[in-house]
Write a structure and sequence with these properties.
Glutaredoxin, four-stranded mixed beta sheet, alpha/beta, 2 domains, 8 strands, 459 residues
Length: 459
């Protein structure tokens, strides 16, 4: 691939999505940094939900199906994000609202006017809290753009007044863009389509064209664009000249109190592939913050927690197939990302050689009790579950793994099955619930819960 800039990113969004709103405030700066061309492609989020059979339904919001604990953690995460980026936001009294008319208006105006009008429509919904589906609100949004007086401006205002902006052409463009997003694998918005990215899928096949979902995946988009500018593929992110760590959004850094330690609690169950990813980054955090960062490992029974907070026992089975397929790709993206950063930083950590377990879900009560009996086993047990593809639900396999690591398997498993360890595991699981944990891979610091290895840089 020859080095050049000007690579295309198709930005799929709906005005009704708060995360698409966040993305809309960041994407032009991303384009300026990478020399990319952004194609603004509004889509109907409800139609994506309908086409992909999302559990919340076409008229729902993704958070409708969250249990209360997850909803609370997610809400605080959203507030952290808008605060970090300084994004104005007022929660609308009614959400979601129908945005079909607003999206058709975006296809009525010339493409060069679409970004500015998009920003004003997002403000109608998420700042001014005006009814975005009404003509008066659409006119206000267009007026706030302050486009110069012209025949085009008069034509748009007339079309808003008489409703002709919702013509057959605008309907077709909106439906076509929505269908394209679904075909590309989008479970929702915001989504970003990079038609030129070359990458390798889980089966080892080379593919061209890749979709990324979520405003918190925009660092992937930026990294791939920088790679394309240098003539590299998506499989070569570790060779990009820009530091990938510098692309990761962070919360405002605060110094540790002088002479004090800061404790970070890592709540995990070996059964979660996402918790495994978070665990792989703990050594990097320890190097970054030094000896005054105390990492407290907190194993607990994820299945029991799910039951207690009303979550499905197997979350991946409770979402749409489209989202399930994307989540597997997304997990692979994080493996690629952390391995690329590790390569850039001199391979200070062992490469993540992730393998989706053939026997899943993994039954981990005995595995968890074993690590409580001997905490030094955490590395060995995690890699057996998610790199070596061993059936860790089998006590004989577990014993062999412990023995291979030069530990006394018989003694450890005897201790693991003692009443003391059983009670400790139950107590930790209760503590997880009381702390507001809703999934494995949660970390807590300064009394705040942050979920998954994908967010370790927020710490």
């Amino acid at each position: 691939m020859a080095p050049r800039s000007g690579h295309v990113v198709e930005f799929h969004y709906d005005i009704s999505c708060p995360f698409a709103y966040i993305a809309s405030t960041k994407i032009e700066a991303l384009a300026a940094r990478t020399g990319a061309k952004i194609v603004w492609r509004p889509v109907l989020l409800g139609a994506i939900y309908r086409a992909t059979k999302a559990p919340q339904g076409a008229a729902g919001s993704a958070s409708d199906v969250f249990n209360p604990t997850k909803k609370s953690v997610s809400s605080r995460g959203f507030q952290r994000t808008i605060a970090r980026h300084g994004i104005p936001h007022r929660e609308p009294a009614q959400h979601p609202q129908k945005t079909t008319a607003a999206l058709r208006l975006l296809y009525f105006v010339p493409e060069k006017l679409r970004p500015k009008l998009t920003h004003e429509l997002f403000k109608v919904y998420w700042v001014h809290n005006e009814p975005v589906g009404e003509k008066a609100s659409l006119r206000k949004a267009f007026d706030r753009c302050q486009f110069p007086a012209s025949e085009l401006r008069d034509r748009v205002l007339a079309a808003i007044a008489d409703g002709t902006f919702e013509g057959s052409d605008q309907r077709h463009q909106l439906e076509s863009s929505t269908d394209a997003a679904v075909q590309r694998g989008a479970p929702g918005v915001p989504s970003f389509w990079l038609p030129e990215e070359i990458w390798t899928d889980g089966a080892g096949n080379r593919q061209q064209g890749r979709l990324y979902w979520g405003q918190d995946r925009m660092q992937f988009v930026e990294a791939v664009l920088m790679g394309l500018n240098e003539g590299k593929t998506g499989d070569s992110l570790g060779q990009v000249s820009t530091s990938l760590t510098s692309l990761t959004p962070r919360s405002r850094r605060q110094a540790m109190p002088q002479g004090q330690e800061v404790k970070l609690e890592f709540w995990y169950d070996f059964s979660s592939p996402w918790a495994f990813l978070g665990w792989t980054q703990l050594a990097s955090l320890q190097r970054q913050f030094g000896d005054r960062l105390q990492i407290d490992m907190k194993p607990f029974l994820l299945g029991i927690l799910f039951r207690e907070i009303g979550a499905p026992n197997l979350p991946m089975a409770a979402i749409s197939e489209q989202k399930r397929n994307y989540m597997r790709l997304d997990h692979g993206d994080w493996v690629r990302w952390w391995n690329a950063i590790n390569s850039q930083e001199g391979t200070l950590d062992r490469k993540i050689d992730f393998y989706w377990a053939d026997v899943f879900p993994i039954r981990t009560p005995t595995v968890l009790k074993a690590v409580l009996a001997e905490p030094k086993l955490c590395d060995v047990l995690y890699r057996a579950c998610w790199e070596r593809n061993l059936n860790m639900s089998d006590d004989k396999v577990l014993a062999n793994v412990i023995s291979e690591a030069d530990f006394d398997a018989q003694a450890i498993l005897a201790t693991a099955n003692s009443d003391k360890i059983k009670q400790e595991l139950r107590a930790r699981t209760k503590e997880a619930k009381d702390s507001g944990i809703y999934k494995s891979g949660n970390v807590t610091g300064r009394r705040e819960v942050i979920w998954s290895g994908a967010r370790t840089k927020s710490l």
